[in-house]
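3.2 Worked example (two chains)
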Amino acid sequence: MEVQERLDPEEWAGIMGRFVGILAEGVRRFGGTIDKFTGDGIMALFGAPVAQEDHARRACHAALHLSRAIADYADDLRRQQGLELHVRLGLNSGEVVVGRVGEDDLRLDPTALGHPVGLAQRMESLAEPETTYLTESTARLVEGWFHLTDLGPRRVKGVRAPIRIFRLEGAAPRVSGTRPRAALSAAPLVGRGRR
């Protein structure tokens, strides 16, 4: 908002166009879907509308990629225009409904609805600049695949009990041919059935 106030609307639109382009490329690179533009960011989905067994890992890889890409863009803006751009990311995993909102003549594009969506937004708003915060439900799905810092339980607006929050630090090194046992057993298989 502070940067936006100082700039001409066309200049701001150009900055946001490039910013959203970087975000969209990073999300799509890891198999995610852009759900909506939020004014100064995006909401993305992994594992919906197309099921992905490794959706949480994909989201974490995308978050790490986006953090680097946006940091590079922010450096360019700082050097060329003297502007400061900071990004915060929030991840949560859970069941949502993806579908059209509204009735008949006022039907809006498909979107994700449910408590997990709001909790992801809360993680983003709690995160420090240049960090990604995860809920415990996402942290359990990526355990062993990524380095996480446990920030402990916190009260979150709209949630009755405190929830444990984690900061995404980076990908964990893997020994060739091995996979973390916890990550393999934490998520149910999707799209599998008897023939």
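3.2.1 Second chain
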Amino acid sequence: MQVWHAIILGIIEGITEFLPISSTGHLTIAEKMLGYSISDSSITAFTAIIQSGAVLATVVYFWKDISRVLMAWMRGLFVNKYRKNSDYKYGWAIIIGSIPIAIVGILFKDEIETVLRSLWFVAIALILWSLVMWWADKKAKQNLHEEDITWRDTLAVGIAQCLALIPGVSRSGATMSAGLLRNFDRVAVTKLSFFLSIPALSAAGILQIISKHSAIGASVGWTATIIATLISFVVAYISVAWLLKFVAKHDYSVFIWYRVIVGVLLLIALATNFISAN
């Protein structure tokens, strides 16, 4: 992979990872337009690995919150009186909410890396999940806040997160929609989406580094992969800060319309053979 391709893909990953517009979908489209075989295992691995940069940006941005929750959870494991702490409960909620995608990701790993990489799936998922996001955004009462989140809520959101294994759905789009349908405010569901991304995307990246290390080195190249990951870190940090401010005052309409437009344009491109599906 050429360095300038890695820079472009790193920027796309950084911008789209936490916006509810599907980073994997956008990366898949961009990789195809740059001339890569999107069904190639090394490209699939590259896509997963550079998400680690966005995860690191989340950890850095929310470090105070993460360290507070982590310390409360660890204290609660050993001292009973700390188990009433809301941060201790939140820690368990994040762990429980991360279980579903781990199970589904392992069970359907082959399908995720092959069949679901088709751009037809990306286009259809972009459009159909936009309807779900619109419904959730309009239906949400938003009368619950971050301190009200329980393990039942994160489990429901975690199950919804599994749908993001279909490129085009969007992990953040799925988790935010599920959180809104459980009546949490937009800032709370956005932060929860960030927190749930850490174990899910970290595990996916580590798995690909271990299993596809040789394939990456022989085809895409580790230099390009590292550059894209670093770029995604910087851009994602800016994106996280912007998104939190945006959702505090706006609904998801702009993202919904954007998804529909991209999905329709992609369907037209596929139908006219301007671009191939695989």
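3.3 Remarks
The longest helix spans residues 186-211.
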